[in-house]
Amino acid sequence: MPRTPNDRGKPWIAAAPDSWGRLHRVAAWVLLGNWAGGSTVPSRTLYPHQWSWDSAFIAIGLRHLSPRRAGRELETLFAAQWADGRVPHIVFNDSVPADAYFPGPDFWQAGVPGEAGLINTSGIIQPPVHALAAWEVHRTDPNDSLDRGFLHRLYPRLAAWHDYLLGPRDLGGSGLASIVHPWESGMDNSPCWDSPLARIAPADPGSYERRDLTHSDAADRPTDLDYGRYVRLCTDYRDHDYDDARTEHAFAVEDPCLNGLLAASEYALADIAAAIGKDPGFHRARAQAITAALLERLYDPESGLFRCRDLRADGADGSDALIGEGSVAGLVPLIVADLPEPVVRSLLDTLRGDNFALGRVHMVPSYDLTGSAFDPARYWRGPSWFNVGWLLHRGLRSYGATLDAKRLREDLLEAAGRTGFAEYVDPHTGDGRGIRSFSWTAATALDLIAEGAD
């Protein structure tokens, strides 16, 4: 039986005893090859630093090779947590040249004190998958986890992270967290952001140099106009010292993906609290409150999915507004426990219908296949992503859609192997797009393989 090394000093961990054995070996070596000493880079080329929600997905897969290394992945990230509780979306590796990635540390001018000096970070966030990841890492080897104090160390940091999201980032006062930049959604270039971004004056293109186009086809990446708007939002936030109370936030959106993950992570935080002898009731109640706010604020029964809410929209009555674009972000709340049965049924119908065509295209497209802005190649405007597929697979299983979950699992694993662990794929052709040997693609494959070995 093929075997994969770990770093725990225990016997090597056997690969899954099914037809995905070779895929398991190659996925393991992708993660080992992208290991940077304390964390895993998404890729050695375009993304040479540590990314927040990438590391959560990476830890979920890495736990099948080494729970200790998976735990270290998360603890390295949280060592860069800010005093206000936020977890920055990038933790910069000082051994990488400052100009290797834009926006780099010189642009953000942000960081926190560390044992070896300043830890340079970005100033924005990404979706909160971390408590869910920490709980999965713990469950892999609970005795060792408790002996090492893994959950005891991480619990207060996770709680502070959620406090930040539901405190300073509740810009609408509704019990939901808001994103203040498209990058914070994780779905950076989604058509959902077109309308809110249209109000933003782009930064002078001569004031910065795009580095992403060095490693990726321009047809796959955001346009120069959108990129200029991204830079403008970052600059304004930075110039207000990343203070949410002092920044007007011309872009402020309640996103169902981020808030669905926050609810799921609150449930995971309840499990963590119980495991270390604390009362889980607070976190369960907060998860239920987030879920209620999601349903009240973002669920659209007519379209059968959750929508993003633009808090800066100028409606006829002066109110904010739901964004009409159909994004896969609106299906991610399937991972949340105890959704009303009619809502679950409606989400499943939408996932299986012509808009997302589960089982009839490759994986799950990131945007409505019938939408006017659909693009099968361009970043988050149509391509199918492995981490989102993993989330939806988890939701399908939790709500008893076992046949759909099985088909999606097989689709994700087949695509990962065929494309060399591509960043994302064209939903119609299945062609790999973006970067190859991408870490969360390998990590989610490892987790899906392990599921079949249970």
Automatic annotation (TrEMBL):
<dbReference type="GO" id="GO:0004573">
    <property type="term" value="F:Glc3Man9GlcNAc2 oligosaccharide glucosidase activity"/>
</dbReference>
<protein>
    <recommendedName>
        <fullName>Mannosylglycerate hydrolase MGH1-like glycoside hydrolase domain-containing protein</fullName>
    </recommendedName>
</protein>
<keyword id="KW-0378">Hydrolase</keyword>
<dbReference type="InterPro" id="IPR054491">
    <property type="entry name" value="MGH1-like_GH"/>
</dbReference>
<keyword id="KW-0326">Glycosidase</keyword>
<dbReference type="GO" id="GO:0006487">
    <property type="term" value="P:protein N-linked glycosylation"/>
</dbReference>
<dbReference type="InterPro" id="IPR012341">
    <property type="entry name" value="6hp_glycosidase-like_sf"/>
</dbReference>
<dbReference type="Pfam" id="PF22422">
    <property type="entry name" value="MGH1-like_GH"/>
</dbReference>
<dbReference type="GO" id="GO:0009311">
    <property type="term" value="P:oligosaccharide metabolic process"/>
</dbReference>
<dbReference type="InterPro" id="IPR008928">
    <property type="entry name" value="6-hairpin_glycosidase_sf"/>
</dbReference>
<comment type="similarity">
    <text>Belongs to the glycosyl hydrolase 63 family.</text>
</comment>
<feature type="domain" description="Mannosylglycerate hydrolase MGH1-like glycoside hydrolase">
    <location>
        <begin position="47"/>
        <end position="441"/>
    </location>
</feature>
<dbReference type="InterPro" id="IPR004888">
    <property type="entry name" value="Glycoside_hydrolase_63"/>
</dbReference>
